[in-house]
Amino acid sequence: MTTEPKDVSVDVRPKRQATVKHIATRKGGTPLVCLTAYITPMAARLDQHCDLLLVGDSVGMVLYGMDSTLGVSLDMMISHGRAVCRGAKQALVVIDMPFGSYEESKEQAFRNAARVLSETGAGAVKLEGGIEMVETVEFLSKRGIPVLGHVGLMPQSVHTNGGYGARGRTVDEWQPIIDDAKAIANAGAFAVVLEGVAEPLARKVTEEVAVPIIGIGASNACDGQILVTEDMLGLFAINPKFVKRYAELGDGIASAIETYADEVRTRAFPSEEYTYKMRGANQ
Predict the structure, then answer these.
(1) How far is CA 95 from CA 126, 141, 145, in A?
(2) How far apart, in whole angstroms, are the C-alpha atoms of residue 222 and residue 51?
(3) What is the end-to-end Cα distance of the chain in Å, rounded?
(4) 91-114: per-residue pLDDT in tens?
(5) Active site residue 4
(6) Where do the domains of the chain lie, and which CATH numbers do they carry?
(7) Which of 173, 195, 207, 273 is catalytic?
(8) How far apart are CA 171 and CA 198, in angstroms?
């Protein structure tokens, strides 16, 4: 007797817009589908497939050509957050708290996070950090600010951590990351992003932490996955090891622009097909 394969393509999202409560219930279930978004048209296209859309501070590198995320401002995040919320009807929208907007004190974090949610309509904020951010996460959670945590490789700490290399590739590096994830979850985070860690560590964190673990460069052992949309669509020449390119849109864009330029220079465009004509007898 053969057993039918499990249908893993079933859409388990709620019919209305997802909430943090819905995301939290997905621990150990069908993996969460998450991507980044920064503008309304892209958010609208991603929304029908994703459980969570992250307005990441990666916007600084993706749209503004910055070398890191450190130059991103709170106003930038709010502006792009508004745009994404206009396009998202079903996925939960989460907005990154940029560097310098929450580290000083829990009160600073609350003021800025409250502004982010009230001015964008997003459902939650994300902040980086482990044990050192417990007091802040507790403070926010108790005051109605849902928090998505972020541990492991933390881009906002790139200078103090010596670059973007993967974490947890030796066993003696594991415990601090495990402790960070547990601490943030226990402080009230509804889920935690785990970035850039070795597969065995990702599996252990996912098994030991009670809330969903959303991986990026952390293996399929996690409760969900997130990627920078432009990375997985092939819009950049640099391709991180953990990114599977599902399309090569960069090549397609370059080819289309080259053809357009050639046709403009040879006056092939606009042809009669794309030109307005006079009405009536004067055609």
Answers:
(1) 6, 15, 12
(2) 15
(3) 74
(4) 999 999 999 999 999 999 999 999
(5) no
(6) 20-249 (3.20.20.60), 253-282 (no CATH)
(7) 195
(8) 10
CA proximity to 166, closest of 240, 68, 106: 240
For the stretch 24-76, pLDDT in tens is 999 999 999 999 999 999 999 999 999 999 999 999 999 999 999 999 999 99
